[in-house]
Amino acid sequence: MNKGRLEAFSDGVIAIIITIMVLELKVPTGPEAHDIGALHGLWPVFLSYALSYVYLGIYWNNHHHMLHATRQISGGVLWANLHLLFWLSLVPFVTGWMGESHFAPRPMALYGAVMLMAAVAYWILLNSILRTEGPDSVLARAVGRDKKGKLSPLLYVLAIGAAFVSPAISGALYATVALIWVIPDRRIERVLADGHATGSPKPQ
Amino acid sequence: MNKGRLEAFSDGVIAIIITIMVLELKVPTGPEAHDIGALHGLWPVFLSYALSYVYLGIYWNNHHHMLHATRQISGGVLWANLHLLFWLSLVPFVTGWMGESHFAPRPMALYGAVMLMAAVAYWILLNSILRTEGPDSVLARAVGRDKKGKLSPLLYVLAIGAAFVSPAISGALYATVALIWVIPDRRIERVLADGHATGSPKPQ
Amino acid sequence: MNKGRLEAFSDGVIAIIITIMVLELKVPTGPEAHDIGALHGLWPVFLSYALSYVYLGIYWNNHHHMLHATRQISGGVLWANLHLLFWLSLVPFVTGWMGESHFAPRPMALYGAVMLMAAVAYWILLNSILRTEGPDSVLARAVGRDKKGKLSPLLYVLAIGAAFVSPAISGALYATVALIWVIPDRRIERVLADGHATGSPKPQ
Amino acid sequence: MNKGRLEAFSDGVIAIIITIMVLELKVPTGPEAHDIGALHGLWPVFLSYALSYVYLGIYWNNHHHMLHATRQISGGVLWANLHLLFWLSLVPFVTGWMGESHFAPRPMALYGAVMLMAAVAYWILLNSILRTEGPDSVLARAVGRDKKGKLSPLLYVLAIGAAFVSPAISGALYATVALIWVIPDRRIERVLADGHATGSPKPQ
Lengths: 204, 204, 204, 204
Prior knowledge:
The structure is a homotetramer. By secondary structure, chain A is an all-alpha fold. Chain A is 75% helix and 0% strand. The first copy, chain A, is globular, with a radius of gyration of 19 Å. Mean pLDDT of chain A is 84; it is low at 196-204. Chains in contact: A-B, A-D, B-C, C-D. Chain A binds chain B through residues 1-2, 5, 8-9, 12-13, 16-17, 20, 23-24, 75, 78-79, 82, 85-86, 89-90, 92-93, 96-97, 100-101, 104-107, 110, and chain B through 7-8, 11-12, 14-16, 18-20, 22-23, 25, 27-29, 33-36, 39, 50, 53, 57, 60-61, 64, 68, 182-183, 185-186, 189.
């Protein structure tokens, strides 16, 4: 089974999702379109875009590392991957709605719901890969107890609830999840590096 | 002839088709756009999107397996592949129309017509590859009598006719085809696995 | 210099151009949108799309074969390739205008002008590759006297002129160029095959 | 760490950015849409598109050469690359605004601001790669004193200021930066060629 093609397809879809999201930043038209004030109403859309860009960057990075440590792809993994990409493909829609509505409660809650589903789909994908790789694989050791993977869904659920009380708290929670994950891949990088170090200790 | 570039191009087109389809899910605007009711009218569009996403996922998976078992690409295969991608490229349009019209008869029938043409194009592609691979190839054995490949067009024709009587039956038939195919690649996977097993029996 | 990345980038751009073009097929909305008559006005757009799809398929196929027979990529080739992609990127615009205007004279002439520029850009790319490959290269022999490459620009010029007299003649000329090129790659395929045959004659 | 996937993802994003930009060239509709005059208002949009196309071509070329001379990719490089792609993803928006506003002062200044941020992001990416590659690497020697990399941000700042006085001067400055960079890769190409020549002198 061809790992390269799975990676290429996922990269393509994520690259397109990221770029299509920017289309929500609509060029101002009309009489006062040349004024800098025309951009004022775009701030929420821009902020939403930046947040989702970071999220998709995190998914791409983690996906990259996960597959780098994967040796075999089964038919089930192909579908688990498509399932993840399905939820990610809804990100431009919920991002656009959140921005357009200037962070209204319901759009903020829906944003969290899609992110929660994407996290669940990532968890399913990870586990369907681990099933083929086995508990002693490089990937299994790299993932370990997966604290971040367990914390994020919890924070999403909190953020969904908070959206109806205070969209600001909800937004802060989304930003927190992003910050937690921005350097997540280090885990796998470290184990990979350790593995190499153990196998062939460097004279330093 | 370079198989990799054919795969990459097809992946690119399918990835873009999938992602462009989601643009039909238009962000609600206007006075009541922040309300969850604003999403009510989007359900048919979302359902249509999900159905077409599964279809395109099936095509991508089958295409992946078919080319994995292919050794040579002729000029005719390049065009047969472009022909398949042409019909798939019309999927966002018919999906959008089906959703926007809330599953009206004519859009549902047109959806089936495009799916029928895509199935025919896939059949042509498969056969132009089989012509070069020969009847004893891994691919030929994997495809076998191709029951699903023969059943789907029949179901599409039924669904097109049913659209004018009951769009619900038509939709159920489309969902049935999707379900039949969701795990189709097993065929080729199994033969490939058998081939390996026969060639080099594992001591287990 | 990395040939693979040039191919991948070109494939990506061409795949996106093809798929973005289909967005001109706008889903009918409004009171009579469910009626099949709603599609009536879309025929010119669909026809234009199909024609441009074939043209882009031809460019992709020829590009594929040309680079397959190329061994080295210089900095000049990178820019010549970007120049070709620039003109191809305008194809969705001229295709959309031609379709929307129901084949009016000026849009038809502009279509030919963009196609003419793309043909010139392809010719420049081919020659900048040939300069590095040399006159005895596989590519140089495959291209030969390049009759089709010389005929197409002439037909485009005729079609541009004819657009102001009879758009039908103009359209027929565009279709003719497409037909001439649909099996153009055979040239290179044959020489490649001959080369192999000479090197290792098959006992048949 | 997989360099190929970083390249493929970046190529995908840049290819999509370039192609999405062309969507700002909107097909004329309405009573006089078939007239050539309908294109008159599109000239600023077309000019903006052509300028940004050249800029993105430059980024793609330089990115291509930089990574060609790179041997290892760290986690930091992945994020530095995503940071660069973020600013490039805003290019279609600022290009569209500049064109739509017929080169009004504020849109022209914003264009420069995004270009400045992209240049800064490129500089960060280059330096995070150089940190892993080391001062004696092929890349470090190829980059040298990086005069162009230091000149461009200065010209962008000048152009941002000039936008409020004379958009024409601002535009001329943007065009100048593009011209300076159109053949920038020669630097790395030359050192690579020199390196090969020194390493294994050809008997010619």
